[in-house]
Amino acid sequence: MKTGISYYKAEPIAEKSWMISNAFVDHSYALCYLVEGRDYALLIDSILGMGILKAFCETLTEKPVLLVNTHAHSDHFGGNFFFDACYMHHRDIAFFQDSVGKVRKQQIADMAKGMALEEYRDRIEPDDDFADWNPMKVFPLYDGDVFDLGDRRIKVVEVGGHTAGSVVLIDPLTRIAYSGDACNGNTLLEFDNSLPVISYLRALLHLKDHQAEFDMMYGGHEIFDPSIVDEAIETTAKVVAGTDDRCERTGIMGGTVYYAAEKVKDGYARKDGKHFNMSYVPEKILGREEEKHVIRLEKNCYRGIRKHRRGMRRCFAGSRFI
Ligand SMILES: [Fe+2]
């Protein structure tokens, strides 16, 4: 930290549990969390890659830090490349690999300059304070997996919708659900890798099965009462039935999307005072039950493999094992 800028701050939210946010901005756009156990600490998301997050975690815990991502969006995995490995739901791994090109030091420093408080702006340079893509191991997660920290066990609940592999992590010890972007006041289901609304409704019913296990939902941008899950189920069911408010808006990618509940003028809040809202595209409401995982082999890649195999055969032909 040559510039002397404190990029992060931490706030204790429960026993050995911290909310980490950006400190050099007026309002932290994204949130991540550190939960310390007897054997290791679990970092839940890595936000934007502004500031050396691994070093900051080491100011909070002396335990080894394992990283898990709630989903593969760059505002939640930007700091991944300060680590050697991460855990992520298996349905988001391919998308993560396609998106990592966005994690470049220069790009992140430029973004930080734009977000920074006036007093820090001139000191921000694309130096080692900013994450840059590195090869890293990605371990797949599945619904029902558990992070056993030694004296606390964090449960993985699959809540696909926003992305196919979005997860919620439940800590039964503190009764906190770390929910990423799975269910919030602006749940975007408008992306190519978002699931059909009906699949999201099924996922919310799965989350509802766990609702009695938590008292608070700490999301990737905001904090909610667990009752937002009920609002989400009610609202999503209306979209499936075609009885939602269906408010036309311009989506984040520039196309036309619909919001399920009417918002106040010039704001995100719902007009009826409820908290959950979602965007969707009309072609992906019912949809068919999506294929879980499609693996394709490009022709050029296949030729490459055949060439490689021929080479390997020639290589082995001279050995006594063939
Ligand atoms: Fe997201």
Feature tags:
single chain; 322 residues; alpha+beta; Metallo-beta-lactamase, Chain A; six-stranded mixed sheet; five-stranded mixed sheet; 8 helices; 17 strands; disordered C terminus; binds fe (ii) ion
Please write the string of helix (H) and strand (E) elements.
EEEEHEHEHHHEEEEEEHEEHEEEH
Number of structurally distinct domains: 1
The largest sheet has its strands arranged as 8-9-10-11-13-14
Number of helices: 8
User: Quaternary state, please?
Assistant: single chain
Q: What small molecules does the structure contain?
A: fe (ii) ion
What's the N-to-C terminus distance? 56 Å
What does this molecule look like?
The protein has 322 residues and is an alpha+beta fold. The chain has a single domain, classed as Ribonuclease Z/Hydroxyacylglutathione hydrolase-like (Metallo-beta-lactamase, Chain A). It has helices at residues 53-60, 74-77, 93-99, 105-115, 118-121, 197-208, 228-241, 299-317; strands spanning 8-14, 17-22, 31-36, 41-44, 65-68, 85-89, 137-141, 146-148, 153-158, 167-171, 176-180, 187-189, 216-219, 223-224, 247-250, 256-259, 278-280. The strands form four sheets. Strands 8-9-10-11-13-14 form a six-stranded mixed β-sheet, covered by helices on one side. Strands 1-2-3-4-5 form a five-stranded mixed β-sheet, covered by helices on one side. β10 and β11 form a beta hairpin. α6 (197-208) runs antiparallel to α7 (228-241). The longest helix is centred in the last third of the chain and has 19 residues, at 299-317. It is globular, with a radius of gyration of 21 Å. Mean pLDDT is 89; it is low at 298-322. Bound molecules: fe (ii) ion. The site of fe (ii) ion has 4 residues, from loops.
